[in-house]
């Protein structure tokens, strides 16, 4: 496997206006291999944008090593830039120009053949709206234009910071389809997002960041299985009696309003058998597999709290949870 992006021990502390220091990255590591759609997850303020800006030479790191497409970053960025497309800060386009004209100008400036303009307009679904002024575009259309501009050079690697921001569900879905198509075409995609269901649907690998440090990484399924407690939802008519039987058998049982949650279940059929033998017929036996959202909330300790409101920096201190998932 070739690492398309490799980051090791990245550190960045910002000086604040009042002369204080804000640690944005605290020894962050990340590896993205060729061909991945790699999701980059973390709560607000955890350091995602800072990581991407540092990687792209927009912010200077205090310490750490980075490489991009096999070359040291940021020093070799000018050499690799033609192979790289990135949207990190929302690009500002000139509102009076049409989308098509904007892309033509960008293509000319970047030495890209003019035919690419039509190709990327079609690719992002703007072909029929390309002659309208950018100021008349919706947020989603501006996002598409930004992606189109990043695709002009036919990059091998595409870096997108929160591409689904501000998109409606249909727009999010189209962005997802677009990323899949790009991936099928052989482009490696690194995409940051808060929309966990999105990441789970589209990404094959994830890196989760909390307070400037990596707290989990790996194939999505492996990260999730690290949190799989073998739990099942069990529904029977007599919950108390069933709970008694299963507890006696040594299984951890939690009694819920209208069902039981049973952990450490090796063989679900065994539960059905134990209860059935005692005349209790199971009406539901469902494995409770963790989803990315519950894993993310556990890892970053950012589960919603009613009162007081969680502050953006109150994510969990990394290193306090044993992940069971090796980077
Ligand atoms: N230029 C800056 N000056 C001072 N502090 C900064 C600067 N840029 C980022 N920070 C701080 O660094 C931390 C990480 O910010 P960053 O933008 O990387 O987070 P993020 O993970 O992208 O968050 P979000 O999900 O909200 O986009 C935050 O506490 C932020 O306030
Ligand atoms: Mg950000």
UniProtKB/TrEMBL annotation:
The keyword ATP-binding applies. Residues 5-236 form the ABC transporter domain. Keywords: ATP-binding, Nucleotide-binding, Transport. Coiled coil: none annotated. GO terms for molecular function: ATP binding; ATP hydrolysis activity. The keyword Transport applies. Pfam families: ABC_tran. SUPFAM superfamilies: P-loop containing nucleoside triphosphate hydrolases. It comes from the Bacteria. Belongs to the ABC transporter superfamily. This is ABC transporter ATP-binding protein. It comes from Phytohabitans flavus. The lineage of its organism: Bacteria, Bacillati, Actinomycetota, Actinomycetes, Micromonosporales.
């Amino acid at each position: 496997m070739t690492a398309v992006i490799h980051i090791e021990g990245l550190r960045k502390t910002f000086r604040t206006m009042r002369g204080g220091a804000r640690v944005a990255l605290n020894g962050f590591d990340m590896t993205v291999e060729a061909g991945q759609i790699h999701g980059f997850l973390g709560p607000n303020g955890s350091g995602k944008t800072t990581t991407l800006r540092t990687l792209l030479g927009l912010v200077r790191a205090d310490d750490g090593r980075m490489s991009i497409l096999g070359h040291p970053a940021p020093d070799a960025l000018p050499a690799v830039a033609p192979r790289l497309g990135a949207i990190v800060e929302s690009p500002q386009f000139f509102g009076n120009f049409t989308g098509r004209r904007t892309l033509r100008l960008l293509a000319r400036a970047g030495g890209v053949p003019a035919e690419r303009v039509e190709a990327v307009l079609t690719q992002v679904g703007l072909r029929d709206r390309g002659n309208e002024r950018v100021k008349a575009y919706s947020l989603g259309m501006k996002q598409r234009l930004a992606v189109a501009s990043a695709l002009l050079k036919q990059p091998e690697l595409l870096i997108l910071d929160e591409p689904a921001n501000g998109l409606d569900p249909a727009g999010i879905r189209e962005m997802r389809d677009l990323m899949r198509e790009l991936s099928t075409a052989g482009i490696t995609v690194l995409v940051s997002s808060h929309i966990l269901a999105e990441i789970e649907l589209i990404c094959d690998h994830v890196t989760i960041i909390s307070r400037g440090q990596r707290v989990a990484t790996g194939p999505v399924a492996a990260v999730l299985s690290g949190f799989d407690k073998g739990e099942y939802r069990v529904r029977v008519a007599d919950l108390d009696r069933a709970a008694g039987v299963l507890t006696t058998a040594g299984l951890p049982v939690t009694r819920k309003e209208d069902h039981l949650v049973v952990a450490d279940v090796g063989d679900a059929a065994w539960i059905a058998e134990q209860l059935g033998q005692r005349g209790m017929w199971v009406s539901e036996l469902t494995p409770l597999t963790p989803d990315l959202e519950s894993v993310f909330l556990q890892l970053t300790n950012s589960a919603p709290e009613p009162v007081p409101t969680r502050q953006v920096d109150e994510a969990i201190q990394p290193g306090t949870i044993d992940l069971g998932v090796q980077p």
